[in-house]
Amino acid sequence: MKQRVISSLFGIILLILVLMGNQYVFDFVVTLITMTAIYEVINAVGLKEFRRMTAVALLMPPALMLTSYISTEYLSGVVFLFVAAFLLLMLFDHKRYIFEKAALFIAISLMISLSFLYVSLIRRLGNGNLDIWVLLIGCWITDTCAYFTGYFAGKHKLAPEISPKKTIEGSIGGIIGVTVILTAYAHIAANILGNVSVNTLSAVITGLVCGVISQFGDLCASIIKREHNIKDFGNIMPGHGGVMDRFDSFLFVAPVVYYILKFSPIFY
Question: N or C: less crowded end of the chain, CB within 10 Å?
């Protein structure tokens, strides 16, 4: 527990420093996180030995991030080039890179790269860190509220074959908790700043949606770990596991939050 608390404090300090930086610093850190998450999953599913495909997979996050500065219209073209690169590696070394391996590399790198790219795009919407905190609260507070609700009141298993410790009560507590806290955050932030208004309905909807879908990301990550008999994706954060263990819910939440805030902003 002591190790977990120390890691959390260090992570909070690092997070604050990153949020204090400009968009370029923020995007650089997001890119590093994305690359680390991809590598952790590749390693977890036993694909690390395929070095050339691993290298291509790790090049996707910086390529997509750089492309997003030019125009998001070109993202699909860059994605096509990377998919083609994976398939060409399979073509020229088909005995080693069978289709199943190539398809798995494509799925891992594409899903993680695109999902985490939305973290950067959320910060570019116009409200900067105000919107980023919406994302962070939507992911991490759901997990925290679900954990404590399940610990004190959990009785009915949510998905025993996937994650035995998760309960239905915990899941509901996570949804309610994040909705209340996210709505409260929006109004507190607006009162402190004084120059923004809050769309309460959008805050409530965002909280409810985040509370539901963030748990899908967590459960999907749990399936991968259970299938490959590992406890954590890595050990970069003592007491917490790897980057993917901390950011798995972002896979579903980041894209959804981006489109909610784009079409129905919480702050205006």
Answer: N
Say how far apart CA 267 and CA 125 lie, in whole Å: 11
CB-based contacts of 68: which residues, under 8 Å, 6+ apart? 75, 117, 120, 121
Identify the H or E element spanning 165. strand 163-167
Side-chain-side CA neighbours of 87 within 13 Å: the count stands at 6
- From the centroid of its chain, how far is CA 69? 21
Rg of the chain taking only CA atoms, in angstroms: 19
DSSP state, residue 266: S
Backbone angles phi, psi at 21, to 5 degrees: -75, 170
Q: Give the integer Cα–Cα distance in Å for 79 and 73.
A: 11
Task: Please return the burial class of 37, using the count of CB atoms within 10 Å of its CB with bins 0-12, 13-18 and 19+.
Answer: buried
- CA 163 to each of CA 44, 171, 234, 248: distance values in angstroms, whole numbers, following the listed order: 17, 12, 18, 14
Per-residue pLDDT of the chain (268 residues; tens, 9 = 90+): 566 667 778 788 888 999 999 999 999 999 999 999 999 999 999 999 999 999 999 999 999 999 999 998 999 999 999 999 999 999 988 878 889 999 999 999 999 999 999 999 999 999 999 999 999 999 999 999 999 999 999 999 999 889 888 999 999 999 999 999 999 999 999 999 999 999 999 999 999 999 999 999 889 989 999 999 998 898 777 766 889 998 999 999 999 999 999 999 999 9
d(CA 71, CA 77): 11
Contact 47, 70 (CB under 8 A): no
